[in-house]
Amino acid sequence: MQNIICDAVDEDDDSVIGNHALSESLFRRGHTPTLHIFNSTWSSYFHFPRIKRNVSNETWMMTIPRSLLSNLKEDFYEEFNVHAMLDYKMEVFTTKASLLDLNKEAILQWHLGEVLDTSQLLVTSINDIKLITVVSSCAPDVVLVAVAGIPSVLPICVSYANFMDLSDTSCYDLSQAICPDCSNLILLDMELTSTYLVVFTNYGVFVSKEITDFYKGYKLQLMFNYIHINDIEQESWINYELMHTSECQSALSVGLVSYECVNERSTLHILD
User: Fold this and answer.
1) Do residues 92 and 134 both lie within one domain?
2) Of 22, 118, 140, 247, which has the highest C-beta tally within 10 A?
3) What pTM does this model have?
4) Residues 94, 129 share a domain
């Protein structure tokens, strides 16, 4: 069950007393909020009942059964958009938010490696590293940030709130999960598709197992497979970068369909 509380915010008096007074004024005039929750495959409106009020703090209250917040395809998840409006379809006031089910977003259901204490990272020069940021194609609030250029360590941090709060962030060292026998392994690039995590290193390309194939309520270590490309020598990997067009879709497989030179850099195109 999802317990939803709605309160108005008074821009001229943004205090508990001011906001509750505005909510009470709107309530007495017959105004009630409505939530429009939707994504590309599912949409529904939820109306706050006028009679269900929290008397102690003068806010609207509503309970939404979790079973109603589901996609038509139970094996595939897409983050919800939320539009909160005052008075159904009258557009008196509308604000936008998002709703993420932490138990369904695929990349959040895995251990990506050994838990990393970022304070132990030794970086000799800021010029030696770069930050790689990728966003989940099905959940824009889920962001992965990796540090490229540190030998033998592949630091990656995952946040489900756009790194707004460190308590919503987990950091890992991917090196042992990717290639435990590779010395001086260095991250070069990374992409997150709707079904796979693709990691590009100075040893080549590693593709995870399907991240959508997880056990509910239990995190396992995410495993990776090496993708062999006959035409590229290992010494040349550092001259390549990944390219992927992000789309939220359930993919059956992932492949490197082509590679080409772009602005003196070679690009590996990912298809999923």
Assistant:
1) no
2) 22
3) 0.78
4) no
